[in-house]
Amino acid sequence: MMRASDFRAAARAALNGNWILAVGTTFLASLLGASVTMGGTSPMVGTTGSGNSANYEQLAEELPADLYKYIVAILVAAGSVMAVIGIIRYIVGAFVSLGLIKFNMALIDGEKADFMDLFSMTSLVGKAIWLRIRMAIFTFLWTLLLIIPGIIKSYSYSMSGFVMAENPEITAKEAMTLSIDMMRGNKWRLFCMQISFIGWGILSLLTLGIGFIFLGPYMNAAYAAFYDDISKAYSKVHSGEYTEV
Fold this sequence. Notes:
The protein is mainly α and 245 residues long. Helix content is 71%, strand content 0%. α4 (65-108) crosses α11.
């Protein structure tokens, strides 16, 4: 059974000679809102809020009426633009996430990975968006019970994007169901793999964040190696029938 160090080693081997391509591809994917685990915050987060009404009232009293209205208009416009950008990134990031997964799976499989892999899943845009939303909804509902169940379920759903990228004909529900089946007995292994990158994360912080440019592709390739391992093991012992989420 492969361990965290084995997944990291597989990632390094896959990235050997492909670092520049992987860094550029991962950087663009992140700008577009993509993630190999199909994660993503709500596009509206950080764009609205009640704020501190006392401060707004004080600002209104201290500034001339016309200038205050002008400032408010700018803030509203800026907030609206950020909200629109957030929504676009959430939508585009859904199918680009599948493309990023395809890119990293090609690296792990020793196949030719291409920058344009990011946009190779545009035909699945509807499925990809629904998968991302469905994962977020189910994770949120489980989190309402307690934080821990929500975290556990997020691990159960974490391979859903990989499943859909590899099986584009299946539905979002089937992708999540198969991810749940695959992750039974493997959630702790994934957690250990993630924890093993803490040292690299600290080093990246010490480089004023520059190191994260290389850490992102490294972790993504490790995720792909993890999925490759559990999917092969799963296919040996299961018929592929789905159970309910």
